[in-house]
Amino acid sequence: MSLNKSGRPDPQLEADFDIRAKNVEQCLNELEQFLSPLEKTTYSTIHETISPLDRARYDLTAAYTLNSLMWSYLRTRGIDPKQTQLKPELDRVKSYMEKMKMIIDKQDAPKVDKSAAVRLLRNALWQKAQGKNTKTDSETNENSDMTT
Predict the structure, then answer these.
(1) How far is CA 64 from CA 10, 26, 27, 92, 111, in A?
(2) 3-state class of 12 per DSSP?
(3) Secondary structure letter of residue 42 according to DSSP
(4) Which of 28, 79, 110, 136 has the fewest CB within 10 Å, making it most exposed?
(5) pLDDT tens per residue across span 55-96
(6) Given its phi and psi angles, is residue 44 left (phi above 0), alpha (psi -120 to 50 degrees) or beta?
(7) d(CA 4, CA 16)
């Protein structure tokens, strides 16, 4: 902290620090309230009640949350988390989250009704072919009339 001429901390800097410290404390309290229901149930109980996709989402979210909290902890201790094994672990969890998102997007993608598509194409091609035949027949009749 910078000191002023009287040897006391700068009041503006001190006030800014107090605001940030209160904000961190409030965020930690909110996190504690959010995570408190997890303390009341066991991991296996949660896993038994949810679908396999939700299990994967739950596990990835838990891994990412714990790694992010560890990242914050290391930063508060003055340790650069990039110099630890935490960065590759976070990258690994992120890659799995992206894979899971691709799976979810693929499941949510509209499905093609193959039989309806075949009927549509067959009928569209048939009408186009009939249009060509009709034109060809009328042109043939006109050409034969001109030659006679």
Answers:
(1) 38, 21, 17, 10, 32
(2) helix
(3) -
(4) 110
(5) 999 999 999 989 998 998 999 899 999 999 999 999 999 999
(6) alpha
(7) 16
